[in-house]
């Protein structure tokens, strides 16, 4: 996923120091993760429709303000930071899509390509972001861990190994959850697009 990741230990130490109020640790952390956050945002926005009103820099700035703008968060480690970043990015994109939907009732909705993550069929599953969020919320009610796997892979761009680290589970468990979640979501999104009989 990340081209030149900082060592996990350094990130974890900076997160802990920042959580205890060390502003310099927060600056070191920002320098270390900004490029990775921007890559994550750019990768996600590359799958958006042309003319999207968020660009990767704006998305990362909003993400950073939400993550670091208030009181320090007690991040456990680098994996926990990326898990929270993925979840926060999802919220930002959903908030943005809802705002656009309110402003353009009846107009085209924001589209995302699920082909950005391996295993999705781009010809069939090029779904509306709000529909995906709704389906993912329903999946979370049935299988919270599987929903987190999708969130981390799709919104966070994490690889399966990184998801396993973030969730504290085995790679086999992530692969199984990914397979179940993918099948469930593909079925749910396909049935949402079928015209009523």
Average residue pLDDT: 75
Strand coverage percent: under 5%
* Relative helix content: 55-70%
Overall form: globular
Topology as H/E string? HHHHHHHH
Structural class: mainly alpha
Contiguous low-pLDDT stretches (5 residues minimum) are: 105-116, 119-127
Q: How many strands in all?
A: 0
Number of helices: 8
**N→C terminal distance:** 43 Å
Number of domains: 1
Most strands sheet: none
Radius of gyration: 17 Å
How would you characterize the overall build of this protein?
This protein is an all-alpha fold and 197 residues long. The chain has one domain. It contains eight helices and no strands. It is globular and about 55 Å long. About 11% of the residues have low confidence.
Secondary structure blueprint with pairings:
Elements: H1 8-19, H2 23-45, H3 56-68, H4 78-103, H5 129-142, H6 144-155, H7 160-167, H8 171-193
Helix pairs in contact: 1-2, 2-3, 3-4, 4-6, 4-7, 5-6, 5-8, 6-8, 7-8
Keywords:
mainly alpha; 8 helices
Q: TL;DR?
A:
With 197 residues, the protein is mostly helical.
